[in-house]
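Interim report, section 4.2 (structural modelling).
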Amino acid sequence: QQQVRQSSQSLTVWEGETAILNCSYENSAFDYFPWYQQFPGEGPALLIAIRSVSDKKEDGRFTIFFNKREKNLSLHIKDSQPGDSATYFCAASVWGNMGYKLTFGTGTSLLVDP
Amino acid sequence: NSKVIQTPRYLVKGQGQKAKMRCIPEKGHPVVFWYQQNKNNEFKFLINFQNQEVLQQIDMTEKRFSAECPSNSPCSLEIQSSEAGDSALYLCASPGGAETLYFGSGTRLTVL
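Predicted structure of the assembly:
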C-alpha cells in the first residue's frame, strides 16, 4: 500500500501561473516532509521541506501548505517558469533510531508551457 | 546543495554479471543510504549504514546486494548476479542536517 500518494502523475501549466502539486500520506507518525525536484538524468534535489508542527513553509516562489488533520500537503510554485519543468516528489520521514529513512511518492511530472 | 558523488553515471551489464557502483558521501559523512528508483519512479530503500556497519537492509539486498564503506575509500553497492529487474537508477544519499537526505546524480544500471 502506498504510504505517500501524489494525486497527479502529470500537470501542465502556463508560464506565470501557479502550479499546485498535491500529496497525501497514511502514517500519522510521519513528522517531516521534504519535496524533491528531479530533472532527467539527475538525482533528486531537495527543494523545500516542512515539519509537522507547521502548517506553511515558504521559500521564494515555493510554498508548502500542510494539513495534519487531513494528512495532506501541497506544493505551490508561484510564477511558474519553463525551467521549473521537472518531476516533483513528495517524501515523508519518521525520525527514529535508523535515522533519515524516507518514503517517497511516485512523483508529479510538471510541464510549464512558455 | 549536495555534493554526493556517484560513479559511474551509466553501467551496462549482462544477466548474471556483477555490477558495482560507487559513492563518495557528503563531506565524508559516516551515514550512507542506497535507494533504487525504477522506471515507474518508485523509490525502494535498499540499505543504509554508518561507517562500516550495516544499519538496515531489505531482504532483497541480503541475498544479492552488498554494500560497504571502507575507511578512506568510496562507499560501494554491488549486485552479485544482475537480473533484468535490477535495471534502474541507483541513488546514494547522505544526511545534510534536519531529517532529510541529499542525493547524488545516480548510477543508471541497464541489465541486458
